[in-house]
Each structure stands twice: as C-alpha cells, then as structure tokens.
Design a protein that fits this description.
Blueprint: E1 4-16, H1 19-29, E2 31-32, E3 38-47, H2 52-58, E4 63-72, E5 83-92, E6 95-104, H3 107-111, H4 120-127, E7 139-153, E8 158-171, E9 189-195, E10 210-213, H5 217-227
Antiparallel strand pairs: 1-6, 1-9, 1-10, 2-7, 3-4, 3-7, 4-5, 5-6, 7-8, 8-9
Length: 230
Amino acid sequence: MTKISFQTRIENKYVVKNADFTQAILKAHFLPDPMFPAGQVNTLHFDTIDLDGIQDKRNGEYYKNKLRLRWYGENSLEKLPEKVFLENKMAIQKEKKKSRIEIELTKLQRNDPFNAKHWLNTIQENSRKLNFNYTKPLFPIMASKYQRNRYHDPIANVRIALDQKIQVTHYSPDMKILIQSPIPGLNYSVLEVKGETDRLPLAIRNLIFFQLTAISKFERLFNNTLQISR
C-alpha cells in the first residue's frame, strides 16, 4: 500500500534581494539538512480553467488549497521520472497542511504532460486520499523549477529553505495566446521558515533585508509570465 504523508506547520516566507549574504548567514548559524541539503525542486502546477487557485491567492482568501506534481533533481519536464509526488497544499492563513503520495506515471503522462485527459484518473483516484476538494476539472498550467538549500535549527526546531533561480520552464500550449518567450525568472530569492510557531530563529530575526510576504511562487511566476505579453 502506498504511504501518504501529512504535515502541519506554521510557514513564513520572505523576499530576499541579497541571496549570497543570506546564504552566508544560514551556513554560519544553521546545520545543513541531513537528508537533502541542496538540490533542484521541480513542479507541475494544476489549476482550473478559470484559474481559481490563482484568483484565491490574489484575493487573499482565508482558505486556499492547490494540487501539484513534484519531483527532485535535474530531470526536466521532457524527462519526467517514473515516480513522482502528487501533493495537496492547504493554507489557512499562516498554517500550512501538506499531504503527499508517491505515484507512478503512465507513459502518456510522461510524454504529454500538458494533456489534461491523461491526469483525470490520477486526480480522481488520489484527491480523496490527499483531502483535496475540488468542484471543477483541473488542468496542468505550467512547470517551474528552483534551486533550494535546506537548513535545520535544532534549538528552535524549524526548517529553513532558501530558494533561488525561481523560473518557469514550460507552460501549457493553451496559454500561448497570453505568453511570449522567453519567460524571465523572478528577480529575487525566497526564504521559507517552517516550524511550530511563526517566530524567526535568533540569528536571522533582525536582518532588515527580509520582506515578510504571503508569497506564492506559483502565483508570482504566473503573474510574471503574463506581464511579458502586455
């Protein structure tokens, strides 16, 4: 039986302009994650035809959830691995609940990942397991990647991640009328602090170059993508 993992945590995100300095602070004060200290994070983002997930984020809805496909390493969308994670991330203000299940992709999904028909059964079979509620069909909208460095603070019992080079790698062909290429990545990095409270560890609490924000990398990348066509 496939194992499903569930996590609940308080999550704060900060826009970081000076990633090199931030990286140096993190290396000096925190331990690298013992299992995955660094690597590339890849995501295939799903949304409805009306982009309800994007709209919920823009409107500041109290409760939000989103479905995504996630895998790690240098494999691009053209070379999807056979096994990936299907994740549901729910947000109730700062509290985040994430459920994930490892799935094995079909040949059709790997060869034609933006064809929504290939995902219907996968989403239907796993949405209830992941506590994902949706009333409209979901479509793969775009794919993204970023470089993540992970740290751990055993005293405060928090996990810290610095995400850099955040960029769109592919977008659905159905969006071509909205988008021009090439699509630039975000011109900043994102620091995430995850733990049982929203209090920052002492070593980085007073650094003034952090801008606390309810940022969604998916929403920011999508907005960045649309701005090119204006």
